[in-house]
Each structure stands twice: as C-alpha cells, then as structure tokens.
Amino acid sequence: MKSIVVGAGKVGYSLVANLCAAGHDVTAIDRNRHRLDILEEHFNVNTIQGNAARLATLRQADIAHADLLIAVTERDELNMVAGFVAKKAGAKSTVARVRNPGYSDFDDTDRLNALGVDMIINPEKVTAAEIAKLIAFPEADYVGFFGDGQVQMLEVKLTVDGGRLGVPLRELDCPVPCIVVAIEREGGLLIPKGDTCLMPGDAVLLLANTEEMRQVEEYFHIDVKKPRNIMILGGNLSGYYLAEMLEQSGRRLNVKVFEPDYDACEELTANLKHTVVINSGGSNISLYEDENVGSADVFVAATEDDKENLFAGVLAKSLGARKIIIQIRGTEHAQAMERVGMDKVVCPARLTADAILRFINRNRILSLTRFNDSAGQITEYRIPDKARAAGQPLKDIGFPAAALICMLIRGRQHIIPRGSDSILPGDTAIVFSLPEALRKVEALLTEEEK
C-alpha cells in the first residue's frame, strides 16, 4: 500500500512508524528538513521537503498512484487543501487533521465529499473523548467499548483480596461471564493462563458484557465512586472540548477550568453554560488551596506544556485529589509521569494515530487501541468469509501464545471461546495481542485462505 504522510511532527512520526511496521511504502512531506532527517534515521521512508498544498510537490511523491494521503501538519487549512489537491490528482483516500472548532461543520458526508477528504480527525476532540470516558469510570485506567457498546473492557488495579487473590483463575467463580484479558505486573504485561493467580497491586484488563461489568467489579472488590467534582487545568482546545462533553453528558458534575489567559477565559465563559472558569495558571499554589483542588474527584492537566501538566498533577495529588489525568505531547515522557504518581497519561498524537489506523483498516478492523505504551494492542476484527481461521476449532488454528481471543460476537451471542469453539465468517473477534503476535493474528483472522 502506497501512503503519503504530510507533516512530520509528533502525529506524523507516530503514523510513519505504524505504517512502515505494517509494510506500507511510505513517503513523508514536510517543509522542515530536520524533521524529515529524523524520520529517515529511524524508518525506511522516502522524504520530500516542500509544500504539500502544491501539486508539483505531490507529483514528486507520485500522488497519482497513492492509496492514501494523510495530512497532519499544525495548519488546518494546509491539511484540507492538501487533501483536496491529492484527491483531484488521483489519491484513493485522504485524511486531514483539523483542530479548529470553527471547522466542525465540515465534518459531514456532503462537505467532506466536496472537499475531497474522506475523514477529518480532531486530536483535541479525540483526546477529550478519551478523558471523558476515564472520568465516567474513575476506578479504571482504561475504558473500551466493543460490539456497538455491548461489551466493555476496563483496566483496574487490585488492592483488596476478598478471597480472589492467590487463587488460580480457573477456580474463580464470577457470577456473570467475564475474562481476565491481561495482567500488568511489575512493569511487565502478560497474558494469563488458567493456573495464573492474581496478586495484590496487579492491574488487570477485565472484559464482560457492558450491562454486567458492575457485577464483575463487585466480585473483584473494585471500589466504584461516582465522580462529582472535576477540575481541568488548561482552557485550550482539549480543555474546552472536555468541559463541553461533561456538560452534555447528562451527569450532575461540578466542573472548574483554570486558564491563565484572560481573553481565553472570556471565550470559555461565553461558550460553556455550567462550567466555572477561573483566570489562573497551574503553578498558583495558594489559589489551588483556596479553590479546594484537594477535593477533586478527578483533576485533569491539559495545557500544551508537558512540564506544567506534570507539576500541576503532582501538586493536585499532594493536596488530596483522588485521580490525576495528564495530557502529554511528547510520548517519551509518558512512563516517567506514571512512575511519579500520575494515575493516567493520555497522548493526543497516539490517540490520533490510532484513529487514523482504524480508518485505514476499516474494512477488516472495527476498532484498535494500543495499550500500555504500545506494549499490547486490543483489536476488534470483522471475520471475512474465507478467513484462514474460519470454521476450524481454535485449538487447531495455531493461534500465537502471545495473543488471546477474548470474545466472539455472533449476532446477539457473546461467546468467551474455548479451544473447541470455532470462529465463523461474519463473527466479530475481540483480540488482545502482544506486539510479536500481531502479524500472525491478522494473517489468521483477516487474510483469505489461498
């Protein structure tokens, strides 16, 4: 597959890494030669220095034979124009990153067709949606929905025994069907077997029917408290979208936004109906005490500055805030922030790349989420008619040990499969894979038998 990535910033870098890993023929375009040099150092990628809104530049990249162009520069207008020119010049599919809320009207089928863009992606809105899910389930560090919302996956930490710890998984007797998909223990990620025992401090991925997940949490003695007080540092696009989503959620929440820019505060106040907007930055300790940040059920640091977000998160934690969520721009800081007590780190570049990868693979992949800093991947596959694994018992297909078929959705049936079960064409398979198993899993579940 021939793919062109316009923009070699953080999102572009992440996309190039994933596309090259998937075997695409990748060309990257950027005006900044230094950014392109970094890509060339790390990946087998062609690079072109130039303006992707110009047809001459796109022709250098052989746009007429491109299967896909993804424009993810910092300029919305450039991304949309690049998509338009690319489609007219022969690109089969185009994706444009568009951040400005003023362009939200473009995100419908008719306008996208007129623009020549197949998908518009808004990193800040994607990030806000991810944080909103984490706020709705404050006990969890990951929240995922599958099968049109029928199936739910949560990552939760085990702190209370209650007779569930130190017992082989095959001997646990949860009152509703569920599965322990993976365990994060001492910095490593493992796929459990029947004789695996859960230990105090484990972070576990649990999968169950959405309507039964609360019973699963009760069984594992997971403490669930509905959040009420939400505090957001940063009235930028991510902070604004998040506050707007919380207002529209229908839940009775007390939401405060801290923003140091006075003009931005006025704009937030004009556009948000039930959110308290406070003109202050993240390092004002006395204001944090006056505003009782320590009472926050969830504190979100969502400024454009990773260091400011870290400082604010540490400060809020020290004052007693229950859950800290940090937005970061540089993926290299993610693990460090979690080590110093931040409960959850979200990265717009990674979330945006995941959303675009889902679009690229939309014919065979319904959803895709990279988990735990890409140490694992949760994928929802649609099984084609002649898939290599279709119609055979799972124990006979040679499924890799570093992956697990967590559930099969077959119409209204939700099946936690055993070795004697078979995958059928038309099934939806929810799969957890470690990186070394991804290629083989996709070959078995999405490639047709020759």
Q: Give the rounded overall mean pLDDT.
A: 89
Query: How many domains?
Result: 4
The largest pleated sheet is described as:
6 strands, parallel
CATH topology of the largest domain: Rossmann fold
- State the separation between the terminal residues, measured CA to CA: 20 Å
- In what range is the share of β-strand residues? 25-35%
The CATH C-level class name of the largest domain: Alpha Beta
Query: From the alpha-carbon coordinates, what is the Rg to the nearest angstrom?
Result: 23 Å
**Structural class of the helices, strands and pairings?**
alpha/beta
Overall outline: globular
| CATH homology group of the largest domain | NAD(P)-binding Rossmann-like Domain
* Number of helical segments with 4 or more residues: 14
Q: Kindly state the percentage of residues in helix.
A: 25-40%
Indicate the CATH architecture of the largest domain: 3-Layer(aba) Sandwich
Count of β-strands = 22
